Amino acid sequence: MAQAPEQTAPALGKDLLGLEELSRGQILSILDTAERFKEISVRPVKKVPALRNRTIVNAFFENSTRTRVSFEFAEKRMGADTVSISTSGSSVQKGETLVDTARNLEAMGIDMVVIRHSSSGSARFLAERIPSNVINAGDGKHEHPTQGLLDLLTIRDHRGRIEGLKVCIVGDVLHSRVARSNIHGLKRLGAQVAVCGPATLLPAAVAELGVTVFRRIEEAIEWADVLNVLRLQLERMKSGFIPSLREYNRVFGVTRARVEAGPRDLLILHPGPMNRGVEIDSDVADGPHSVILQQVTNGVAVRMAVLYLLSGGRAEQAEAVKQGGDP
Ligand code: CP
Hints:
Blueprint: H1 24-37, E1 55-60, H2 66-77, E2 81-86, H3 98-107, E3 112-117, H4 122-127, E4 133-139, H5 145-159, E5 166-170, H6 177-188, E6 192-196, E7 212-214, H7 217-223, E8 226-229, H8 245-252, H9 256-261, E9 267-269, H10 282-285, H11 292-310, H12 318-322
Parallel strand pairs: 1-2, 1-3, 3-4, 5-6, 5-8, 6-7, 8-9
């Protein structure tokens, strides 16, 4: 639910690179603005002029369905002009550097770059070298801030709060930028956070993240109000992290029997794409505890809010923007 915006909600600054660097006030300002913008996507005419005359480049140098399409919808619904590029078909494949690509795009007159890249730190690297706003849409194993924000919004929608909730992130935490953004965002808003998975898929310094560690999924379910189930990132694993996918599902899989044996009405999230039958069973993914598709719906509103606030929009004016007024 939307809470009354603070009198003067804190501005976001030039870029959105990670939730680690956002204050509680900045995160709440994004969530409250997103809450107001949700309604735009269910109108017959899904468009407001808030980003009219802004040009945004979506530079996706790694595969994506949800994040890329969600940003494109968000940009179009806010009235921006957009262009999308990927490695395939761009001069990156001829060896052009990231910064040269961005500077050439800037020479054509752009205002923002949304970037997904396989290298941790690539979004910051770019942000420090170009004047356009940079939004991190997932950089290697570092952060995926808009995914963290849409997860927070979805949890708050269903539980009415974040503070005091027990949220366990299950699975391949080692390779997960989603886990890192969730941990920073949840802790900043006062949740208790745990992780659960095989030791080989948890960072060596996991305790330094300030989270509880569960080695058994049954204990995690016993403890948690919310499970955020992560995909096994097979493409980032060389070998030897788990004996087999079948073994992983047997020991750590979020199955209907495990969920139903838990003491409370769990809320189950997954950032997608899912490996059905590995980290999560279809009975659970499509079942009554799952809010997975609501996460996807909320993603558009969160990205509209981030684009609006980074472009200089004020959270206090989000209601007027929603009614079609200029920011
Ligand atoms: N959640 C997420 O980042 O999905 P995509 O890789 O499809 O964008």
